C-alpha cells in the first residue's frame, strides 16, 4: 500500500511545483484513500483470491491510475473550486481507476517494478501537459474557438437537443459546422465529461481535460501496446512511450498550432499499429476488428491524420493478404473489418456529404512551398519560441531510433516491420525536399482530393504518424538485439535514457510557450461574459458565402436579424435600424478628441470613463472624421473587452455583399454593442485607437460619439431563445425573416406552430417565410433523414463495441491458487510472434 501513497505524494508535489501552488496534504490523502477504496472494490469483485496474488494486484494500478485520478482534482484545485466540485471530479475519476484496475488484473501485468514504470509514464504525461492543468484557455485564437464550439455543444445537450449537428446557441449563433460535422470526437467527449462531472468545468476546462487525458492515455496505451509485443525488458517500452509523448511531433500539436483535434488522435495511433501487428500475428477476425475500431476512433478525432494512418493500414493488409490470396477466411475477415470500420464511421462520411459544401482547396505548389520553408529546420533543434513551422518534426532522438529501427528491419523485411518501413519511407518522400521528387509527388501523383484532406501543412499530419511508427520500429530492433544477448539490455536502456533526456530538453520551449499563452483568470472571465463572446473566422470558413455582418470582433446576433420584402428580398426593416433610430435613447454624446499616449507612439486615447448600468443594452455610435485611417479600435473596462479593426472589422474575409460589420467604411455599421450582465454597474474605462503605421497627420478632431440605450424587447424581432432559435415578430406585410444562421439543407421552421418555408437569402443566410401580423417563429436543425439514420447507426455500433470491450474486461477466470505468477512468465512472448 505504501507505493500508492508514495506515487500520490510525488504526483501532487510535481503538480504543486508546476502550478506554483501550496501542497495540500489533505487532498493527497483523499486521493490515496480513493485508490485504496477502488482496490478493495476490485478485490471484492474477484471474490476468493490466492494470498500469493495480492502483492501483485496491489501494484497493478500504480501511478498511472493515480495520475488519471489526480487530474480532475488538479484542475478543480487550480480553478479554486468548492469541495463539491472536487467531489464531482472524483465521481468521474473513480470509474476510470476501477476500469484500469480491472484491465490490468485481466491482462495480468505482474512484471517487476510495474508500479514504478506506470508512475514514470504518468509523471511524464503530466509533465508534458501541465500548462493545460487549468480551467482557463491555453492557446491563441484557435483555442478560444475550440472553447466556444465545446460551449455550444454542451449548451445544446443541456437544453435536451440530441443529436447535435450544427451550432444553435449564442456561442455559435451562425450555425457553425466545424469541427462538429468533420471531427465530432472533441465535442462529444466534452459533452460526456460535462455530464459525468456534473457541469463542474468551464468550456476551456473541458477542452484542457481532454487534452491532458489524451497525452496521459497516449503514454499508457503506447506502453501497454509495446509491452505486449516486447520480448525484451519492459523498461524499453516504458522509455519508448515517454519518447513518443515528449517528441516535438506530439508537443507541436499541443503548443505550436493549437491542433487540438490532432491531439485527440494520440491515444488511438498506437492502437492502430498494435492492431496491424495483431493481424500479422493472429490473422483472425478479432485482430481485424481491433484495427477497424482503432481506425474508426481516430477518424472521429481527426480525418486527415486518420486518412494517412488508414492508408498505411491498408498497405499492411495488402502485404499480408498477398501471401494468402487463396485463403477464404483471410479475405472474409478483412472484409468484415472493413465493414465494421464503415459502420462506425458512417455518420462522419454522411455528415460531410450532406453538408454539400465545397472543400477547402490546397494548391499543391503551396504545399511544396510550406515543406521547403520547414527545411532544414526539421533536422535542427526546436526553436526557442516553440512555435515555428519547422518545430513539427521527429526530434533527434526519434530520428536516430528511426534509422536504427529501419536498418534492423531491413535485415528481414517482411510482415509488420516491412509495413512500418514502407510507411515511413512513403511519408518521408512526401516530406523531405528531395530534388525533383517533392514537386513530382505533390503536383503529379497525389490526387487533389488527398491534397485537400492533408491541406497546406503535411508536417502537422505526418510527423505524429512517423513518431508512433518509429517507436514500434525501435522496439522491434530492441527485441532482435536482446533476443540471445540479454546483456544488451543495459546499454540500450542507457541510450534510451539519454534520448529521453534530449527530448525533455526539446520539450522545454513548448512548455514555456504553453505557459506564456495561458490566459489569466481575470481575462478569461471577461472574455467568457456573453456580451464579449466573439465568433472567429473558423466558424465561417467552411461556408462558400460569408455574410456581410462578419467581424473579427464581437457580433451581437440580435442586430443581424432583418425583415426582407417577400418579392424583392430588399430590406424592409431590421433590428439594427431600431438600435440606431429614434426609438433608442442617447444617454451621452460629445466630440472625440484624440490624445496621443506618448511622443512617437501610435496609440491615441479617444474616450474615458463612460458609465454603464447593469442589465442595460447600449450601442456606442461613432461619426468618423477620418474614415480612411487603418488600425484598431479598442474599448476596455472592468467587464468589457472590444477589439475592432478599422476601417473594416471584417478585413481579410470576402463577403457576399458590401461589409456591414463595424467600421468606418460607407456600408459599415458605425456602432458596436455594449451590455453589462454582471449585477454591478460597470463603465468603459478607455477607448483607444491604435494606428497601423505612424501617422503623418493630426487626428485630434477624431469625430463624434453617441452612447445610445435601447430595450431589446421593443425590437421588430424579439429573440426569446437561441437553443434553438425562437423569436416574436410583427410584420406589416408578408415577409422573409432573415436570421444570422448560415443556410444548409436540413433546417426546419414553424410559424405559429405551423410548418413554414425556409430558403437561402441573397447573403447566404437562413430565412423563414412569415405572414403579416404577429408571429412566433421557431427554427431548429434535425438534419436530413439520411444523416439521422447514419448517426444512430454508428452510435449503436459504438455502444456495442464499448459493451463488448467492457464485457471482455470483466469476463475473466478466477486465478487458481497454484497459478505460476512469476515475473519471468509475464515476459514470455506469445506463441507465433512474428518480428
Key descriptive features of the protein:
single chain; 835 residues; alpha+beta; 5-stranded antiparallel beta sheet; 27 helices; 14% strand; disordered N terminus; disordered C terminus
Describe the model.
The protein is an alpha+beta fold. It is built from 27 helices and 19 strands. Strands 2-1-14-18-17 form a five-stranded antiparallel beta sheet. Strand 17 (758-760) and strand 18 form a beta hairpin. Helix 4 (62-78) runs antiparallel to helix 5, helix 9 runs parallel beside helix 13 (269-281) and helix 11 packs parallel to helix 23. The longest helix has 28 residues, at 328-355. It is globular. 50% of the residues are buried.
Question: Any chance you could write out the topology, listing elements then pairs?
Answer:
Elements: H1 2-19, H2 25-46, H3 54-57, H4 62-78, H5 83-107, H6 114-129, H7 141-158, H8 185-196, H9 203-229, H10 235-245, H11 248-255, H12 260-264, H13 269-281, H14 285-301, H15 303-322, H16 328-355, H17 364-373, H18 396-409, H19 415-431, H20 437-445, H21 448-454, H22 459-481, H23 489-516, H24 521-528, E1 562-565, E2 571-574, H25 575-580, E3 585-593, E4 595-596, E5 603-612, E6 617-624, E7 631-637, E8 640-646, E9 671-675, E10 682-691, E11 701-710, E12 717-722, E13 725-731, E14 735-742, E15 748-751, E16 754-756, E17 758-760, E18 765-770, E19 773-780, H26 785-810, H27 823-826
Antiparallel strand pairs: 1-2, 1-14, 3-11, 4-5, 5-10, 6-9, 6-11, 7-8, 7-10, 12-13, 13-19, 14-18, 15-16, 15-19, 17-18
Amino acid at each position: 500500500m505504501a507505493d500508492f501513497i508514495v506515487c500520490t505524494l510525488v504526483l501532487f508535489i510535481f503538480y504543486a511545483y508546476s502550478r506554483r501552488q501550496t501542497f495540500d496534504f489533505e487532498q493527497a490523502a483523499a486521493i490515496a484513500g480513493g485508490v485504496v477504496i477502488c482496490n478493495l472494490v476490485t478485490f471484492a469483485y474477484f471474490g476468493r483470491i490466492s494470498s500469493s496474488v495480492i502483492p501483485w494486484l496491489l501494484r497493478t494500478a500504480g501511478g498511472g491510475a493515480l495520475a488519471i485520478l489526480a487530474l480532475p482534482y488538479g484542475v478543480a484545485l487550480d480553478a479554486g473550486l468548492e469541495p463539491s466540485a472536487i467531489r464531482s471530479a472524483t465521481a468521474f475519476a473513480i470509474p476510470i481507476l476501477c476500469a484500469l484496475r480491472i484491465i490490468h488484473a485481466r491482462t495480468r501485468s505482474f512484471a517487476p517494478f510495474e508500479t514504478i514504470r506506470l508512475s514514470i509514464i504518468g509523471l511524464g504525461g503530466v509533465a508534458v501537459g501541465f500548462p493545460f492543468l487549468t480551467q482557463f484557455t491555453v492557446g491563441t485564437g484557435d483555442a478560444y474557438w475550440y472553447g466556444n464550439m465545446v460551449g455550444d455543444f454542451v449548451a445544446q445537450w443541456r437544453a435536451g437537443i440530441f443529436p447535435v449537428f450544427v451550432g444553435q446557441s449564442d456561442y455559435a449563433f451562425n450555425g457553425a459546422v466545424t469541427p462538429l460535422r468533420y471531427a465530432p470526437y472533441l465535442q462529444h467527449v466534452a459533452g460526456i465529461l460535462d455530464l459525468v462531472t456534473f457541469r463542474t468545468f468551464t468550456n476551456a476546462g473541458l477542452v484542457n481535460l481532454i487534452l491532458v487525458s489524451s497525452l496521459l492515455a497516449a503514454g499508457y496505451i503506447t506502453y501497454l501496446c509495446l509491452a505486449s509485443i516486447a520480448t525484451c525488458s519492459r523498461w524499453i517500452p516504458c522509455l519508448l512511450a515517454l519518447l513518443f509523448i515528449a517528441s516535438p511531433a506530439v508537443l507541436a500539436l499541443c503548443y505550436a498550432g493549437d491542433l487540438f483535434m490532432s491531439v485527440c488522435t494520440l491515444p488511438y495511433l498506437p492502437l492502430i499499429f498494435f492492431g496491424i501487428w495483431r493481424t500479422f500475428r493472429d490473422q483472425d477476425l478479432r485482430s481485424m476488428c481491433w484495427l477497424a475500431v482503432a481506425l474508426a476512433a481516430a477518424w472521429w478525432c481527426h480525418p486527415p491524420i486518420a486518412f494517412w494512418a488508414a492508408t498505411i493500414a491498408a498497405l499492411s493488409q495488402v502485404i499480408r493478404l498477398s501471401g494468402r490470396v487463396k485463403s477464404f477466411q483471410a479475405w472474409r475477415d478483412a472484409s468484415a473489418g472493413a465493414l465494421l470500420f464503415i459502420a462506425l464511421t458512417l455518420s462522419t462520411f454522411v455528415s460531410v456529404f450532406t453538408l454539400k459544401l465545397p472543400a477547402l482547396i490546397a494548391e499543391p505548389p503551396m504545399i511544396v512551398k510550406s515543406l521547403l520553408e520547414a527545411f532544414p529546420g526539421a533536422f535542427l533543434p526546436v526553436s526557442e519560441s516553440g512555435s515555428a513551422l519547422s518545430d513539427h518534426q521527429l526530434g533527434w532522438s526519434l530520428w536516430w531510433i528511426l534509422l536504427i529501427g529501419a536498418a534492423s528491419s531491413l535485415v528481414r523485411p517482411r510482415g509488420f516491420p516491412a509495413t512500418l518501413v514502407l510507411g515511413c519511407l512513403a511519408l518521408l518522400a512526401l516530406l523531405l525536399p528531395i530534388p525533383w521528387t517533392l514537386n513530382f509527388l505533390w503536383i503529379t501523383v497525389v490526387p487533389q482530393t488527398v491534397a485537400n484532406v492533408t491541406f497546406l501543412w503535411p508536417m502537422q499530419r505526418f510527423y505524429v504518424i512517423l513518431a508512433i511508427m518509429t517507436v514500434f520500429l525501435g522496439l522491434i530492433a530492441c527485441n532482435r538485439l536482446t533476443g540471445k544477448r540479454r546483456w544488451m539490455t543495459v546499454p540500450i536502456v542507457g541510450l534510451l535514457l539519454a534520448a529521453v533526456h534530449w527530448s525533455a530538453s526539446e520539450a522545454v520551449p513548448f512548455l514555456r510557450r504553453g505557459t506564456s499563452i495561458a490566459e489569466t483568470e481575470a481575462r478569461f472571465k471577461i472574455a467568457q461574459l456573453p456580451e464579449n463572446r466573439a465568433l472567429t473566422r473558423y466558424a465561417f470558413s467552411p461556408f462558400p458565402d460569408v455574410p456581410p455582418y462578419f467581424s473579427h470582433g464581437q457580433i451581437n446576433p440580435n442586430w443581424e436579424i432583418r425583415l426582407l420584402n417577400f418579392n424583392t428580398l430588399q430590406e424592409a426593416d431590421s433590428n439594427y435600424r431600431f438600435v440606431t433610430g429614434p426609438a433608442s435613447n442617447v444617454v451621452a454624446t460629445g466630440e472625440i478628441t484624440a490624445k496621443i499616449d506618448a511622443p512617437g507612439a501610435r496609440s491615441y486615447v479617444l474616450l474615458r470613463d463612460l458609465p454603464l448600468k447593469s442589465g442595460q443594452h447600449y450601442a456606442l455610435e461613432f461619426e468618423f472624421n477620418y474614415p480612411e485611417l487603418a488600425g484598431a479600435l479598442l474599448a476596455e473596462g472592468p467587464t468589457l473587452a472590444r477589439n475592432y479593426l478599422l476601417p473594416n472589422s471584417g478585413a481579410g474575409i470576402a463577403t457576399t455583399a458590401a461589409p456591414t460589420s463595424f467600421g468606418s467604411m460607407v456600408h459599415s455599421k458605425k456602432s458596436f454593442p455594449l451590455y453589462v450582465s454582471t449585477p454591478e454597474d460597470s463603465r468603459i474605462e478607455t477607448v483607444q485607437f491604435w494606428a497601423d503605421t505612424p501617422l503623418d497627420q493630426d487626428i485630434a478632431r477624431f469625430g463624434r460619439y453617441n452612447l445610445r440605450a435601447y430595450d431589446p424587447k421593443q425590437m421588430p424581432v424579439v429573440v426569446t431563445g437561441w437553443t434553438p432559435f425562437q423569436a416574436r415578430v410583427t410584420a406589416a406585410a408578408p415577409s422573409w425573416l432573415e436570421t444570422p444562421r448560415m443556410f444548409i439543407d436540413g433546417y426546419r421552421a414553424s410559424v405559429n406552430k405551423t410548418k413554414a418555408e425556409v430558403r437561402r437569402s441573397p447573403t447566404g443566410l437562413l430565412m423563414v417565410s412569415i405572414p403579416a401580423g404577429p408571429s412566433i417563429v421557431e427554427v431548429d436543425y434535425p438534419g436530413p433523414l439520411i444523416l439521422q439514420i447514419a448517426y444512430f447507426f454508428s452510435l449503436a455500433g459504438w455502444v456495442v463495441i464499448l459493451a463488448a470491450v467492457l464485457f471482455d474486461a470483466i469476463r475473466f477466470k478466477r486465478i487458481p491458487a497454484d497459478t505460476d505468477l512469476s515475473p519471468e512468465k509475464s515476459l514470455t512472448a506469445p506463441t507465433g510472434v512474428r518480428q
